[in-house]
Amino acid sequence: MPESSRTSPPLKRLIATLASPLQRLRKFITQRIENELRHEISALRHALDAQQKNLDALEQSSHEKIRALEIIAAGSHPWQTSARTANTPPYFTIILPTRNRATLIADAIQSVLAQTWPSWELLIIDDGSDDDTQSRLQTFLLDPRIQYHHCDAGGVAAARNHGLMLAQGQLIAYLDSDNAWFPGFLAGMRAEFAADAALDSAYAIVLSDSAIHARSQILWRAFDAEELRRGNYIDLNIFVHRRELVQRHGGFDETLTRLSDWDLILRYTRDETCRRVPVAGAYYRSRVSGRISDTRSFGDNWFRIRQKLRALPQLPRPLKVLYAIWHYPQLSETYIETEIRAMLRFGVVIEVWSNDDVAVPYPPAVPVRRGDLQDAIAEFQPDLMHVHWITSASTYATIAQAAGLPVTVRAHGFEVNPQTLADLLGNRALQRLFLFPRQRELMAAADSRITFMKSVFDTELFKPAKKNRRLVLRTVAAIPSKDIVLFLEAAKRLPEYRFVLIACTVYKRESYVDEIIKLKAELNSPAELYFDMPHARTAEYTREAGIFLHTAVGIDQKDHSPIGMPISIAEAMATGAYVIARDDPALCDYIGDAGDVYADLDQACALIAATRSWDEARWRAAEIRSIDRAFLEHADDVVLQPLHDCWLQLQHERASAARAQIA
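-> structure tokens emitted (663 positions)
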């Protein structure tokens, strides 16, 4: 008898009962697999499209470089030249600033003399040289087209501005004392401007030996205003502009110690015509000593230009945000005040609702409300609520949701409980959560509401400054996890250094201040102790200190607490301090090349003591690394831009929803 015929009636009924669910399950699994495959195929298509775009861009770049090489290889140009008579104003003014470049400047001048277009004047502006530059130039000064002007040292921007004040040419060109032009540069640029009276500025091809340009030693990109705003790709040595632009837009910004060329080019091309010209321009030599890039920081100058470029949106009415904070204004919570001050500069109207008392208050920048949160919402009528600390967020978010307000949350670095994070993400009132980068590991899955944002410092308080390189500073909250004992011990071991500890009393931990005073006496430490110092005065000490010693209890020690991104480190780096910190993965990532880490007291003291033998060049390099890291990665107005953008988007969505409801 066949097997199927021996199936019992109960089994047949069971099979019949299961048939429909099994079919639905099979259909569900099939659809799920199809969806997954569809997503994978879509992702692969996007990846292929991106690769094709990269290949297209590479091909275009290659064609441009080949064209540039052909121009350079031609070596001669068909443009007509004419001699300049004594009574004829020069067609070009060439401004050549120099300082202590006696051994290099001759090549630059020779490249000007070799130009096939002879109608020029060369203004050599000596920015306070104390070498034999002037005596070496005597032979060149026999040419009446060359002038030498010695000025007090004021920086390269001031030197170029002095040249602009003296300029007689229709067109202005610039040449650095360590670079050189190709012979047809001026002739080619003159022909371009003569052919187009509407052309305001232009730039040629530059060859570079810089390691920065290892993949693209021929620089000649098409003009793109947006790309120029992101970063400079037009070298000043091959940039030419009409003299009238100086009257329209001013000269070089003398407050910038670097990047004044980028700043000027941005202003001269923002509303004026500019294009690249197929002319071999200059050879840029980076492998020489004493360049500005070796002695001046990049980051703070970059940040200041970014501030100039920033345009605040025109809003029908100001954005209103209610901060909901556990305790405010508490002196030790400087990161909150830094964020608020930045948002005020963005034009946001802010009030704070605080739930609890503080240990050490300070004059806040905004109005503070207490009492019932619902009442604060009803009276202030904000567009949204912003909460600090994950641990407080769920309760406050629920209240905001009942009032119809979107909610954003800023986590703090020491919040490392995955369940607390999961609970908050389960709250439907949450619109956006801003975590620190290392908190990514707390996430069970990706969430589109999460943005990763680094620690920030107040760029109005913390800036590069002249350093006392024997001053060791620690600014700290007065709690046991900060390992203040190590700081006191280090001060005792290194009496030739001045150690200053500025500690702030912490709410509900007030008694630890007395413990610190007791520890200092027991250890007989020479460290200076200051408590609850105002922010502005603390910033003065930070700007002065050459060394910042960050202390924290080790992960295997009593009183250890999770370390996030302490704002005090960013503040110290911004001023140019050499940072020394505990060898903790979070701090290693944070500090990078701006300092060093220690495992124990012996290593911390050894790192400080090693600075005794540092020469000026090594100190300056350390200062530049700190300043650059702070301003490029932790500047308030830059890092907090996504938070402000998020708020504007939420305000817009809320207003649109309200209009739709009325309609």
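The chain is about 45% helix and 20% strand.
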